[in-house]
Design goal:
Helices cover about 40% and strands about 15% of the residues. By secondary structure, it is an alpha/beta fold. The strands form 2 sheets. A 5-stranded mixed β-sheet has the order 3-4-5-6-7, with helices on one face. A hairpin with a 5-residue loop joins strand 8 and strand 9. The relative contact order is 0.15.
Length: about 270
């Protein structure tokens, strides 16, 4: 008569083995998902490291001039007048509050304010403008293949162009008004069919974009900080790198790794 105890033990071992197999499959799946979700981050980190040490032999770089106007304060003057002031001083931007002041104190403050204003007006203009040509030379010295874009001239890329950096061919196009998904897809397909390895779109604002399918990088030349922040939060982590052009006088740099993962940085000084 067959032993029921032995059969039960065999069945128990089979169930344990099945459970272990299922657990291993789940762990393996989690590892794969984690790898693919963080692979982009690893590539960006590696790009930052290689850029820092100056070794970019397998990289392609896109350099462009900043287009955003610097934000300025909209006050009445450099030294705003106190709203409590009861005595209006000529050319009020000097900003003197004569309330409850003795004549000597008032004259002293006026002289001090005039001197401060004179110092401000005689400051030398900024001479730390970053030129695209200098940034290009810098990255070529690091071993990267470099192309430059004229992102402030949308008409230049109204007809899509192919730009060869040496080890990568960029397909570049611009849009100046809202463009449908069908039109966008047609442009991307045509560039890829012509040999483009990476697709770069230049647009004034995100409101003109119907979608981002097939685009590696989108450069916004006139997007507000608030609009760009909202767009980035809405899209989260995505295959398309969204870039807000830096301020005038600086340069934007998009670095493509060998596995076609782009990252962005602005260069404010050299």
């Amino acid at each position: 008569m067959p032993s029921t105890t032995g059969g039960a033990r065999a069945s128990s071992r089979e169930r344990v083995a099945l459970v272990i197999f299922i657990v291993l499959m789940l762990v393996g799946g989690a590892i794969l998902v984690s790898y693919f979700s963080t692979g982009k981050d690893w590539s960006v980190a590696a790009t930052f490291l290689d850029d820092s040490v100056g070794s970019l032999d397998d990289y392609s770089v896109v350099v462009f001039e900043g287009t955003v106007e610097p934000e300025r304060d909209s006050d009445e003057g450099i030294y705003p007048r106190d709203a409590r002031s009861t005595m209006q001083v000529p050319y009020g931007s000097i900003g003197v509050d004569a309330t409850e002041q003795t004549p000597t104190e008032g004259i002293s403050q006026i002289i001090k304010s005039i001197y401060q204003r004179f110092e401000k007006l005689t400051e030398l203009p900024r001479s730390d403008t970053v030129y695209v040509s200098d940034v290009r030379d810098l990255y070529e010295l690091k071993g990267a293949s470099v192309v430059t874009l004229k992102v402030d001239d949308l008409a230049y890329y109204a007809e899509p162009l192919l730009l060869d950096s040496g080890n990568r061919t960029f397909g570049v196009f611009s849009i100046a008004s809202y463009t449908s998904r069908v039109q966008m897809r047609s442009i991307v397909d045509a560039l890829e069919a012509s040999g483009a390895d990476s697709i770069v779109c230049i647009a004034p604002r995100s409101a003109m974009m119907s979608g981002y399918d097939g685009l590696d990088v989108v450069i916004f030349t006139d997007e507000s900080p608030e609009g760009f922040e909202a767009l980035s939060a809405k899209r989260g982590s995505d295959e398309t790198l969204l870039v807000r052009s830096p301020e005038r006088g600086t340069a934007g740099v998009v670095i493509f790794s060998s596995n076609n993962v782009p990252s962005f940085k602005s260069v404010e000084a050299l």
